[in-house]
Amino acid sequence: FHVPGATSDRIDRRVKKVSFLQNLPGSQRFYRYLLPFYPLAISRFDFSGYDLVVSLSHAAAKNIRVPKGVPHICYCFTPMRYIWDQAQSYFGRFTKLLWPLLKVLRRWDVSGSRGVSEFVAISRFVASRIRHFYGRSSTVIFPPVKTSWITPACPGEKGEAFLYAGALVPYKRPELVVAACNQLGLPLWIAGSGPMEDQLKEMAGETVHFFGRLNDEEFAQLFRRCRALLFPGKEDFGMIPIECLAAGRPVIGLYAGALRESLSGVMHWIDKENKHIRDHACTGVFVQPKTEGDELDALLASIRFFLDHEDEFTVEHCTARAQLFSPERFAQDWNVLLERVFPNGFAQSVNEERRRSDAQAEAAAL
Question: How many Å separate Cα 253 from the centre of its chain?
Fold first, then answer.
């Protein structure tokens, strides 16, 4: 599928071909219900004539078929969640009905992973999922987070309110943020929209303000003016916390998913004496529920800890952390990967691989 305007003009200009699913009525809205057609759609793309194929996959793209001898590197955003661990979340009461289809799609998904020469994961968290579902190891290269559009806060400048930024959808747990700020009477800004918006507005107290959809300049202002970003969901990577760090503001987020990699956070339930902030240039506070159902209490505890130690989180430490995910670092990591995959140089390595493949084909014919 390709939805013009959903990404960037640069990507729009480079899209040359889409599958037949693009032309089905409602396909861009109800794409998950077209899962049975994914294997057929992806098999129709022709990759002959290429020396290297790089797929960017969160669903079916890694299952492309490339000619023998052509390396296929998959930059994997995550194994397909709605046929694996989150099928129930996506399909609800229809999951049992769809189970025979999901089993078929899982076999197809695993089979497609075997056609990948090299997996590259967007985080160590995703690498662990690739290992779990496909039995494959991965190189980790964090996505590039461009932050040149964000001006950091001035050192020592006080923030005005806590911030939630992103889609208002169940897995991101925005209701926890609203409930916590209601209970503590803290100002909260919510930037974003989604199916939970009406529900959140009904539960929001007087200190909660909804901004809706914002452009980059408006987002940058909120990042710079906030006290901290509240990030209670589990993400495969998550660019918004890094953008907030680039503005010099810390993050209070769940100790799960890739946030454990992008944030240098205080584990306050362990570090009772607060030495961790002073010694390790921390850029936020982790949230660690003790049990399922304890999420709100855990978030409240982390916010209270932050309020007691807010002055110890600095703009300098936050912006330095964000630089670890720069586009320059991304390009450098990919160059290192390609030099490892093609130690003799790209063209020579590809030609050698093709010669080996041709020799194997000739031997098989004999």
Answer: 15
Q: Considering the entire predicted model, what is its pTM? A: 0.85
For residue 145, the one-letter residue type is V
Mean pLDDT in the chain? 88
User: The domain spanning residue 242 has which CATH number?
Assistant: 3.40.50.2000
| N-to-C CA span, the chain | 43
* Judgement on whether residues 169 and 315 belong to the same structural domain of the protein: yes
- In the 3-class helix/strand/coil scheme, how is 179-247 assigned residue by residue? HHHHHHCCCEEEECCCCCHHHHHHHCCCCEEEEECCCHHHHHHHHHHEEEEEECCCCCCCCHHHHHHHC
Same domain, 200 and 131: no
Its domain, for residue 81, covers 46-144
Residue that terminates a domain, selected from 117, 144, 171: 144
Q: Which amino acid is at 335?
A: N
Q: CA–CA separation, 244 vs 53, rounded Å?
A: 34
Pairwise CA distance, residues 265 & 312, whole Å: 12
Instruction: Kindly state whether residue 242 falls inside one of the protein's structural domains.
Output: yes
- Identify whether residues 85 and 183 lie together within a single domain: no
Q: Residue 121: which H helix or E strand, with range?
A: strand 118-121
Q: How far apart are CA 313 and CA 319, in angstroms?
A: 11
Order of strands across the sheet that contains 265-266 = 208-212, 188-191, 161-165, 226-231, 251-254, 284-287, 265-266
Distance CA 307, CA 268 (A): 12
Residues 216 and 311 in one domain: yes
Integer-rounded Cα Rg, in Å, for the chain is 23
Q: Residue 365: what pLDDT?
A: 44
Distances (CA, A) of 114 to 60, 62, 119: 13, 9, 10
Q: How far is it, in rounded angstroms, from Cα 275 to Cα 111?
A: 49
Of 132-141, 239-248, 337-346, where does mean pLDDT reach its minimum?
A: 337-346
Q: In angstroms, what CA-CA distances link 99 with 82, 83, 93, 168?
A: 11, 9, 11, 28
Give the number of domains in the chain.
Answer: 2
- Whether residue 329 lies inside any domain: the answer is no
